[in-house]
Please model this.
Amino acid sequence: MRRLMKVVWNNVEIMEGNWYNNNETRHNSMKKTYLMEPMKRLEQLDDYDYILYKLLFHGAATFSKEKPASLITLKNTNKRLNALGLWDKYKDQIGKTTRTSYYEMKRDENHVVILFFHKRLLEVIIENSENIEFLERFGYDSKMNLIEALQHLSSRFVDKCPHEVGLFLGYHLEDVVEYIKETDGTGIVVGYWKVYTKADEAIRKFKRYDQARAKVTEGILSGLSPMKTALILVS
Model:
């Protein structure tokens, strides 16, 4: 599962991204060329505006309540050697601004993997009987509350990303199960995750996720402060 780890460390959600073949329909999310200019402008911002906009972009679907949760990685780079320090300094303020909760899944000296989530939306997921039956395969207990479930999920971030995280991110249970099987590696649609069932429903979701992210890029390009963009996103 090396590809999954690579995906996470590049600030993109687990299971998002690079799988498709001639038998699949690929959902065309935002083109890299379209994102180049916003990303350039991002690097010119001061520390707080930079980290807030970066998180708004990668977690747009969650901050707009289109998804229950988003998994985002921050890492120290040559351009921002203090990314983790910025997160530690501003995380409480960011949580209030985005109206979400957060939980650090994994951390080392150069990276932090953060789950941003809406408490009630995640509770609905882990209280679902079919989801509980699935999660019990990985050591979860039906009596766990949300924080206990997140603690267990975090403990499974050792040298790879636990498969069940897709459920927490709002992926369809059937898609997570089929992905784990990895039989022939094919799916119906590839977008924010690999879709094996309910393709039309998934594509509609992907389009809403793209629309949320587009609000952030528009905010960057128009010179809006990230605070104003956040208000647009969460309203």
User: Anything to note?
Assistant: The beta strands are 25-26, 69-75, 101-107, 111-117, 189-190, 194-195. Confidence is low (pLDDT under 50) at residues 1-25.
